[in-house]
Each structure stands twice: as structure tokens, then as C-alpha cells.
Design a protein that fits this description.
By secondary structure, the protein is mostly helical. The chain is about 95% helix and about 0% strand. It is rod-shaped and about 105 Å long. The N and C termini lie far apart (about 105 Å).
Length: about 80
């Protein structure tokens, strides 16, 4: 049968093991997960900027199409 001291020693070993596991997980998050999230965020930012540029080009093209349609309508009358 285990004594109180045995149980306390086992508890301390478990606590130390949990602390090492926690430290390992935090190191993984800091070194790998945050880096990957940052890369995703950078990629998202670049895509958003590209979409803004495309939207500007589309707006200009739409203006040109509207102008051409207006001229065609005028010529048809």
C-alpha cells in the first residue's frame, strides 16, 4: 500500500510532467503555429490588395463600356 509520501511524490512527478508538456506545447505554438498564421495573414493581405486593384480596373472598364453603349445608342437614333 502506498504511503502519503509516495502519493505526494507521484503527484509531484505528474505535475512536473504536465509542466514539461505545457512548455513543449507552448514552444510549438510559438515557433510553428504563429509562423504559419502570420504567413496566412500575409497571403490574405496580398490577395485583398490584388482584389482592390482588380476592382479599380473593373470599374474603369465598366465606365468605358457605359460610354461606348451611350455612343452606340446615340448613333442608332
Amino acid at each position: 500500500m502506498l504511503t502519503k509520501e509516495d502519493l505526494q511524490a507521484i503527484g509531484e512527478l505528474i505535475s512536473a510532467s504536465e509542466e514539461r508538456t505545457k512548455t513543449s506545447i507552448m514552444a510549438y505554438i510559438e515557433n510553428d503555429v504563429k509562423k504559419e498564421i502570420r504567413q496566412i495573414a500575409d497571403g490574405h493581405k496580398m490577395l485583398a490588395e490584388k482584389m482592390d486593384r482588380m476592382e479599380t480596373k473593373i470599374d474603369r472598364l465598366q465606365d468605358q463600356v457605359d460610354t461606348i453603349q451611350g455612343e452606340l445608342t446615340t448613333q442608332e437614333m
